[in-house]
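tool_call: predict_structure(chain=1)
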Amino acid sequence: MTLKSRVLIVCIGLVMGAFNWPLPAVSGDSTNVDSSASAKFGTQRYRLDSSQSKFVAHALRGGLLWFKGHDHLVAVREFSGEARLDPASLAGSSLELDARTASMEETSSVFTDAQKKIINKELHDIVLLPDQYPDIVFRSTRVTGNRIDDLKIAGDLTLNGVTRPITIPTRVTLTGNDLRAQGEFSIDRSDFKVKATSAFHGLVRVRSKVKFEFDIVGHRSSS
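tool_result:
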């Protein structure tokens, strides 16, 4: 800024001050510019909406058995939770998610309805045991990243009564009052003591690695 410009601003300031008028910020003067436009909003809370979301486990085939070795696509139909996001301070963000194991079911189009019925019975009676372990729970412990579309959410996953730390790469976008989180992560089912065969001749026989894919929508909440 030139000396002439600074003198002019001082003069204007004296005149406006005499009438108690507020002095506007000068473009280009970093001391008068908010360093983050989103800082004034603080942390926003978003309730997760399973009816508008997709959360699917990809269980890769482990053998050519009765179902001809097809992969399983097991959808989580019911879950709830809350995401907290502060774009100005990502470290203060968090995620909590509770998924109902009884709501998980086979969705792959390669299986007939009769086959899905058998698979789902095995999933519930032998593999997931919803009466004993009704929820699959994730609680974040740390959120890192430089932008909301490139986050790493670290936390504890509890499945089948076993808790293990995992990290979930996540892309977040904000549209109006809605949050959308997308990504995928993998677990080793043996780490969580999840079975893969049963008395039904091992119809759900999968490899140890299970990949989860999610596209989750949340709505801003004031409470």
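agent: The longest strand covers residues 44-61. Proceeding to next step.
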